[in-house]
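We read letters as residues; the fold follows as tokens. Both lines appear below.
***
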Amino acid sequence: MNAGAKGCLVVLVVLVVAVATIVFGWLAFRGETTTLRSRLTLVVETPEGERSCSSVSQLTVLAPGRLNRTIGFSSLARVGEIGEAVVVDLGSHGILFATLADERALRSGGMGMYNGASVQFAQEAFHGKVGSGILAKDDYTAYLEEMKRRKPRGEVSFGNLPVLVRFSDLSDPSSVVQVAPSDLAASFGPGVKLKRAFLEITEDPPTTGIEACCHG
């Protein structure tokens, strides 16, 4: 190999090392994002038979890197929330909407998209491997990744559902009325009852193009 070729090779190696160092340092400082998708399914009993519908929402969390956590910046940040309401067509009884509003956050005067995963699947039960070293994960990131790996599914209690609503007039957003999950009959008529709700971690894409669905 002549001197010119050796010189080019040295420059190339230096550039590769420099880029790797920058990327490594950036990840160690800024951290990384983790995306989790969950499917919420509602099953409603009506005099005409069961109706069910589901919707997939997506949550992306940015966790600070190890260096950032070392100097005291350890707050997680939601950097992406995508999703739509679960819309169950109950025929002549109306349409039930399970919104993305978090009931508990609203009660405390706050806001935020409903994150069914954290409600349904306790971090203590799905703690993942944190690892060690400069790129070690924080506990919450490890938890999210463990759920993505195991893809759990479970029944959701009515008290852990997002806000349920109906519209007296679908063309008028101001006609929205909150619905009690334990008493759908009060809003939709006799014989209408929320039987159960399920949540599962999935790799399916977020639901788009909102429309009512009805499966018997």
User: Anything to note?
Assistant: Helices lie at 3-30, 66-70, 103-107, 116-120, 139-150, 185-188. Confidence is low (pLDDT under 50) at residues 4-30, 67-73. The beta strands are 32-46, 49-63, 77-82, 86-89, 95-98, 153-155, 164-167, 176-179, 193-202.
